[in-house]
Every structure is written in structure tokens, then in C-alpha cells.
Amino acid sequence: MFIEKIKLTNFRNYDEQEIMLDRNINIFYGNNAQGKTNLLESIYLCAIGKSYRTNKDKELIKKENEFSRAEVNYVKKDRKGKVTVSVSDRKIIAVNDINLKRMSEVLGNVNVVLFSPEDINIFKDGPERRRKILDIMISQLRPSYVHNINMYTNIIKQRNNYLKQIKHEKKGKDMLEIWEIKLAEYAEIIYKYRKEFVSKIMEKIVKIHKDITNNKEEIRIEYISDFLSKEKFLNKIKANREIDIIRGFTTNGIHRDDLKLYINGDALGVYGSQGQHRSAILSIKLTELEIIKEEIEENPILLLDDFMSELDKERRENFLEDVKDTQIIITCTDKLELKNENKKIFYVENGKIKDIL
């Protein structure tokens, strides 16, 4: 699949912009803070339904305007389509000009894999970001997963609110069981999805990482969850009620799940060098690319935000060879020199994009 055209209106620092893309490599270069990342954000927004940079949709609206719109026209092997995301007082997502009732309905129309500079530190940060990467991957291929995550999150919020009421208003504890039973049901579904996809990652990432590191490193991913079975999960939640009441939140559950990554047997987050962190996240992204390709039987779109400048010329060309037949959208500060002739180069300055090649 590939994107033919992007249209932006009042999006971040863009007024009106229409960009026709090459189906292979697209390079957007220019100084920092000119709008390159905003372009990738608009594509991600149309693919996933939300930004990867903010939870506040109104930040997508250009200053002194009342709305913003991002539109992506895409081509898949069996159809063409259009996704539009409009933000004003509320967010409206449309596919082929038909407004969607649920955000999850947008998933699977445009499949993307994003590499942003912040990803380098994902195994140094807390587990929330690692869960997010896994959840986004699953959501693109199993849109129903989003419903289960949302239901679980809502029930956690309700239980947490009631825990505070027990502590401060002396409410009865019996009501907790209603939420705990539901939590166990959704936890089981989410756990099975995550377990399945971590297994898919492990099937592919070992070889991919060996290739990247010239057989110098062995990579292993461990999925850490306190979910063993619905019954044991429920018993553990109940056993921790008193602690949860004191703390005012649910201390156990799949919302605490984590991914641990090991290089040559050592925990990456503790012992890994910056180069190992970079190689590891690159392996994860290439693995995600392969899994999506296998599932949908065509290549997703690869979004690389200020990534290629991290690689020397040889590694850059090797990387592009690994992802051939994939539409790649690259942002960078300097114009990249690539031997691949199937490319378009754009210069970005102050929210304006100029096609220069």
C-alpha cells in the first residue's frame, strides 16, 4: 500500500498544503521546527485516529483558527480510499467521506510503522511506553482489541473512584466485586492478544537483530504480566483490596504489564549502550513491519522521523535494501543523498513544502 496525496488545512503550522507523494521514497528536509514532524503526525493521525505527540486534539489546530483538517488518500492492492480527520470542538474521523461512529473503525485502512527520536529511549523509560508500542501494533491488525482496552481502562477508573469513596466516605466494599469480575474478563482477552503478538515478534526479531548487528548480538524479549488465569487474577485483585483502598488505585492488573528486552543475556534497560538501544528499537520496528506485511499481505508505510541521519551511508543503503518495496516517508535536517532513483525530495520551511525533485 502507499499514500498518493496528503492535504492539510490549519494543521499545526500549515495553512493550506497539498503534497503528492512518490510510492517509494519521500524525503522532507529542512531546519528544525519548520513542520517536518507535523507532516508525519498528520499521516499517523489518519492511520491510528490519534496523535503520537499529544493527547489534546486542539493542539493540532493552527493558532488563531477554529478547526484543522488532515486528509490522506491511499492505495491498497484491492481498493483506493481516503481518511479525513477534522478537529474543532470535537474530532470527526471519516473514511471515504462517511463519518465513523467509533474511532477504532479507522484502524486498518492505512497501516503505518513509525520511528521517532523518542523511541530510542523506550527501554530506559517506564513500562507505559512499551505497552503503547505493543498496543498500537495489535490495534492496527485487530481493531476489536481497542474496544477491550477501552473497556478495561474505564472499569479501572470506576474501581479507583470507588476505592477512594470507600476510604473517604466509608462506602461498602461489596460493590468492588462487580468491577473485579469484569476486570478479570477483559484482562484475559487483552493478555491473550498480547501473548500472541509477543510470540510473533520473537519469531522474527532474533534473525532481524542478528542481521543488523552482523551476528554479534542475540536478542530476547520477555513479556511480563501478573495474569496467569482469570481465576487467579480475580483472587489476586480481591486479596489486594485493603492495599488498594489505602493507596486509592488498583495496584495489580494488565495495566502494569511490561516488555523486557535482553541483549546477549543482559537487560538492555540496565546495561545497554546507546548504540544497542538504537539497534534494538530498529529491530523492533523492522519486526513490526514484517508482522503487518504478513497479516495484510502488503507492505505498510514506514514513517522515519529524523532517523536516517543516525546512520552512516553504508548502513543507510543497507537499511533501505531491507525495506524495499515499502513506501518510506523520511524527515531530516539535511538533504539525504541516496542512490535509489525512485524518490521525491521536498524542502520544508515555515509550514510550506516545496517539491524540488
Explain what you see:
By secondary structure, the protein is of the alpha/beta class. Helices cover 41% and strands 23% of the residues. The chain contains 9 helices and 15 strands. The chain has a 6-stranded antiparallel beta sheet, covered by helices on one side. A hairpin with a 6-residue loop joins strand 1 and strand 2 (16-20). Helix 3 (144-169) packs across helix 4 (176-212), helix 4 (176-212) crosses helix 5 (230-239) and helix 4 crosses helix 8. The radius of gyration is 22 Å and the shape is globular.
Shape label: globular
The SSE order reads: EEEHEEEEEHHHEHHEEHHEHEEE
What count of helical segments does DSSP give?
9
In the predicted model, the low-confidence regions spanning at least 5 consecutive residues are none
Instruction: Report the sheet-strand fraction.
Output: 15-25%
**Approximately how much helix is present in the residues?**
40-55%
**Helix-strand category:** alpha/beta
Major sheet details: 6 strands, antiparallel
Let me know the average pLDDT. 93
For the secondary structure, the number of strands is 15
Distance, first to last CA: 22 Å
Taking strands numbered 1, 2, ... along the chain, how are they ordered across the largest sheet? 2-1-4-5-6-7
